[in-house]
């Protein structure tokens, strides 16, 4: 055992040698060479906690009363997780011994890590002593916490025992799901023998499914079914491959979707697509009177297998910039270097969402400083957010009453007209037959503080 005095400005000290008999880790007390002192040796206290710059002795004067004990700042450490009964009475050396030798099941010794952290150990120290890396420490702790939520959800013992060996990696991947979703995902992973990579795909699919309500075929899949959520992810991936002309990859994605799908309605849709009875639609604009309004997720572009590169115009530059923007750009050569028909200063890369996946020529993104120029009611906090309006300049004719179009409006002839979005019915009432382009998509920026915010049904 060793003792720490956290409120004293005196240096930390060891009362006994640390792990004196362990064959794999040397005694960390100060060691002296036969011919002289070892100036490079360190005590365990220096490994555990970096010295604080504020740890100084207060000067004492014989003429003044003794000063009160200095209270040193200590960083916040979360309370340790409850320890299993057999580990609760262990001293610090014994806890480290358990981690070094992995004594017990992973979820039993995982709570020892936060317990040691609360005693002053840092991640790098534990890695040096036990051989468990910082990444693995985090995975063990989080995995054990997820396992506790599965127990609280009354998950059957047979399914729970599947994670006794190497289960930390699997449970870590479903950490972002709700308690109910974790239980459903755990059962699905056990039935299908998933590894960590497949578990990550499943968690991502379940988390992402509610955000995709504007995608074609979304209503055929059951959001409460892990298999349907994963099948929908593969289905969307197949559509992206189809838009890119990668037929072989499209079929691989469709086969994966059919392997995991659970509901009959979703299976019927997938079978019809594979047999050619149905067509994966590039956009829902032609059939549904709505404009998809999406909020980008952090890192979503990096995760997309197909992306769209569009020239960007400022709304305040009016119609001149929209008409002058390049109409076409694409990848050329072995490396897919992007080339445009003319030079342009501003570009944006968006995921290959269905409404814009088939956009080959004439696409343009118009940046608005706020959502005040959108023709629908929104919450005030959303009105103040900047938005990108993606339009197809190849479809300028105002033909659909329920469609939305990019036009030059306002100003009452004063020359202060600005770009705005108007519905087809409103433009027809005004006698407008041509626009700058049909609106395909409205994009909001990602939000750090509330990534899980869902759009309301009206949007």
Describe this structure in words.
It is built from 18 helices and 12 strands. With 459 residues, the protein is of the alpha+beta class. Strands 3, 4, 7, 8, 9, 10, 11 and 12 form an 8-stranded mixed beta sheet that branches. The protein has a two-stranded antiparallel sheet with strand order 1-2. Strand 5 (329-332) and strand 6 form a beta hairpin. Helix 10 (196-208) packs across helix 11, helix 11 runs antiparallel to helix 12 (247-260) and helix 12 (247-260) runs antiparallel to helix 13 (264-274). The protein is elongated, with a radius of gyration of 31 Å. The termini are far apart. Residues 1-47, 50-66, 279-289 and 450-459 have low confidence and may be disordered.
Q: Strands, helices and their partners?
A:
Blueprint: E1 32-33, E2 36-37, H1 44-48, H2 92-101, H3 106-109, H4 112-118, H5 123-130, H6 134-152, H7 157-161, H8 167-173, H9 179-192, H10 196-208, H11 226-243, H12 247-260, H13 264-274, E3 293-295, H14 300-303, E4 307-314, H15 318-324, E5 329-332, E6 337-340, E7 347-351, H16 354-357, E8 363-368, H17 380-383, E9 387-392, E10 404-409, E11 418-423, H18 424-429, E12 437-444
Parallel strand pairs: 3-12, 4-8
Antiparallel strand pairs: 1-2, 4-7, 5-6, 8-9, 9-12, 10-11, 10-12
Helix pairs in contact: 6-8, 8-10, 10-11, 11-12, 12-13
* Shape, per Cα inertia axes: elongated
Category by helix and strand content = alpha+beta
Please trace the helix and strand order, writing H or E for each element: EEHHHHHHHHHHHHHEHEHEEEHEHEEEHE
Total number of beta strands:
12
* CA distance, first residue to last residue: 62 Å
The description of the largest β-sheet is: 8 strands, mixed
Per DSSP, the total helix count is 18
- Rg from C-alpha positions? 31 Å
Strand content: 5-15%
Q: Helicity, in percent?
A: 25-40%
- Provide the residue-averaged pLDDT: 76
Low-confidence stretches: 1-47, 50-66, 279-289, 450-459
């Amino acid at each position: 055992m060793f003792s720490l005095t956290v409120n004293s400005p005196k240096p930390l000290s060891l009362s006994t040698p640390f792990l004196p008999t362990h064959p794999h880790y040397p005694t960390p007390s100060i060691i002296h060479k036969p011919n002289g002192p070892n100036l490079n040796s360190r005590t365990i206290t220096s490994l555990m906690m970096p010295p604080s710059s504020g740890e100084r002795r207060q000067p004492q004067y014989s003429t003044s009363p003794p000063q009160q004990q200095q209270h040193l700042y200590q960083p916040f450490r979360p309370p340790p997780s409850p320890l299993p009964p057999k580990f609760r009475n262990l001293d610090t050396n014994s806890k480290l011994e358990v981690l070094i030798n992995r004594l017990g099941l992973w979820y039993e010794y995982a709570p020892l890590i936060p317990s040691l952290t609360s005693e002053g150990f840092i991640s790098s120290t534990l890695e040096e002593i036990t051989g468990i890396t910082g990444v693995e420490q985090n995975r063990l702790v989080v995995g054990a916490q997820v396992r506790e939520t599965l127990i609280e959800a009354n998950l059957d013992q047979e399914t729970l025992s599947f994670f006794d060996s190497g289960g930390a990696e699997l449970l870590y991947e479903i950490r972002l799901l709700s308690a109910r979703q974790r239980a459903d995902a755990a059962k699905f992973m056990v039935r299908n023998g998933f590894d960590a990579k497949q578990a990550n795909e499943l968690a991502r699919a379940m988390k992402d499914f509610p955000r995709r309500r504007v995608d074609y075929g979304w209503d055929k899949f059951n959001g409460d079914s892990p298999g349907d959520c994963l099948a929908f992810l593969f289905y969307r991936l197949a559509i992206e491959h189809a838009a890119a002309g990668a037929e072989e990859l499209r079929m691989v994605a469709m086969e994966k979707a059919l392997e995991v799908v659970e509901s009959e309605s979703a299976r019927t849709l997938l079978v019809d697509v594979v047999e050619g009875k149905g067509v994966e639609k590039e956009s829902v604009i032609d059939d549904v009177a709505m404009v998809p309004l999406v909020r980008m997720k952090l890192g979503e572009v990096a995760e997309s297998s197909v992306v769209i590169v569009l020239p960007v115009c400022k709304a305040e530059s009016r119609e001149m910039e929209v008409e002058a923007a390049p109409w076409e750009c694409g990848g050329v050569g072995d490396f897919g270097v992007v080339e445009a028909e003319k030079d342009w200063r501003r570009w944006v890369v968006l995921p290959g969402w269905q409404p814009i996946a088939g956009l080959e020529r004439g696409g343009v993104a118009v940046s608005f400083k706020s959502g005040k120029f959108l023709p629908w009611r929104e919450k005030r906090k959303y009105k103040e957010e900047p938005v990108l309006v993606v339009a197809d300049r190849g479809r300028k004719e105002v033909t659909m009453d329920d469609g939305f179009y990019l036009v030059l409006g306002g100003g009452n002839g004063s020359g202060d007209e600005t770009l705005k979005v108007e519905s087809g019915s409103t433009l027809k009432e005004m006698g407008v037959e041509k626009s700058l382009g049909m609106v395909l998509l409205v994009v909001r920026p990602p939000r750090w503080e509330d990534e899980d915010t869902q759009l309301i049904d009206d949007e």
